[in-house]
Amino acid sequence: SIFVKKKKSGRRRILGEKHKQFLLNYIDENPSTVVTEVAESLTQNFADLNVSRSTTYNFMTTECNLSIKQAQFQPVERNSQERIQ
């Protein structure tokens, strides 16, 4: 019949729901973290897991719906009393 569901094909996902919860908690505790640190914390806390930065980035943006911004650093002189009037 045409209504029979096909078995999912392709590669199994590396990161699951427990990884998603860990990742969201980690980012809540460390909001200024970078993708490399997130990937390292995942591999440290889950012994059987080995993920790349790109896998972590893709998981953060698609599954966790996180938007990632690049930090913009300002020179210290910008906030000095002489500049602020």
Protein described:
The protein has a domain at 17-64. Helix content is 40%, strand content 0%. It contains three helices and no strands. The chain starts with 16 loop residues before the first helix and ends in a 23-residue tail after the last helix.
Provide the descriptors you would attach to this structure in a database record.
0% strand; Homeodomain-like DNA binding domain-containing transcription factor; 85 residues; mainly alpha; 40% helix
Quick structural gist:
With 85 residues, this protein is an all-alpha fold.
Termini separation? 76 Å
Number of helices: 3
Order of SSEs, N→C?
HHH
Shape: elongated
Structural class: mainly alpha
**Rg, alpha carbons:** 20 Å
Mean of residue pLDDT values:
85
Helix content: 40-55%
Low-confidence spans: none
Strand content: under 5%
Biggest β-sheet description: none
Number of strands: 0
Oligomer: single chain
Topology:
Layout: H1 17-29, H2 35-45, H3 53-62
Protein name: Homeodomain-like DNA binding domain-containing transcription factor
